[in-house]
Specification:
266 residues; 13% strand; 8-stranded mixed sheet; 12 helices; 8 strands
Length: 266
């Protein structure tokens, strides 16, 4: 099977590296890439052994699976010139453009072409993306397995109803930035208390990593875990109460709503 990418930005690059040098088991010679800035494609060629193409049409001609890895605002200009070629070849089309629904993609291309919408996140760069996908009615179970095999090379991949996609856009797409912000803020507080920043960042990030693992593997509710850490009259409960009093949860809800509403507008 041959895989084509139109666009070679950060996300496409992370996926291609996960497929090849990341141990995904894909051969770079089966991957065809076109990007308006040829330098990005050539960089992937050196690392992953992919085929650099001179046009979107060349990618489509070569591909059984076509990944549209361009920004949402670029889709309306990138797809129409090659629309008829996509319809003729009828590859499995995968879009990773935020906010663009299956209905929109079918109107842009055709409802007879199998289309899948995927939302990965930036943690794909280290093989830990939290990706979700939904598919058009013309996508077969076998094609869904192809999507899962491709995106499992850069983390987890889960099928969800499209009506939940904007929610995933927050917790799976934008929330890594929230986590980075939390890690940096806590590390800076440690610096204020006297710890060197590199050490503070490492310890904070490892704590967040371990806490996430605890939630996923213990089967316990986060508040039950909080109760286990908070000894009566102890130090941790003072910090938890301070966060609550300062509107920690309310601030997160407002951030969620801001991203969710923006995604709906796209």
């Amino acid at each position: 099977m041959k895989y084509g990418f139109i666009g070679a930005g950060n996300m496409a690059g992370a996926i291609i590296k996960g497929m090849t040098v990341g141990g995904g088991g894909f051969d770079g010679s089966d991957i065809y890439v076109y990007n308006r800035s040829r330098g990005k494609s050539e960089a992937l060629e050196k690392v992953c052994g992919i085929n650099v193409c001179d046009s979107s049409a060349e990618v489509i001609e070569a591909s059984d699976v076509l990944v549209l890895a361009v920004k949402p605002n670029v889709l309306p200009e990138a797809v129409p010139p090659v629309k008829e070629l996509i319809i003729k070849k009828s590859p499995l089309v995968i879009s990773i453009a935020a906010g663009k629904t299956i209905e929109y993609l079918e109107e842009l291309i055709s409802n007879e072409v199998p289309i899948v919408r995927v939302m990965p996140n930036i943690n794909a760069k280290v093989g830990c993306s939290t990706s979700a996908y939904c598919a058009s009615a013309s996508v077969s179970d076998e094609q869904k397995k192809t999507v899962e095999a491709l995106f499992s090379t850069v983390g987890s991949i889960t099928e969800i109803p499209e009506k939940l996609f904007s929610i995933h856009g927050v917790i799976g797409g934008a929330a890594p930035a929230f986590a980075y912000l939390y890690i940096d803020a806590l590390a800076r507080a440690a610096v204020k208390a006297g710890m060197p920043k590199p050490q503070a960042l490492e310890l904070t990030a490892q704590t967040v990593l371990g806490s996430a693992k605890m939630v996923l593997e213990s089967g316990e509710h986060p508040w039950a875990l909080i109760d286990q850490v908070c000894s009566p009259g102890g130090t941790t409960i003072e910090g938890v109460c301070s966060l609550e009093a300062s509107g920690f949860e309310s601030a997160l809800h407002k951030a969620f709503d801001a991203v969710y509403n923006k995604d709906k507008k796209l």
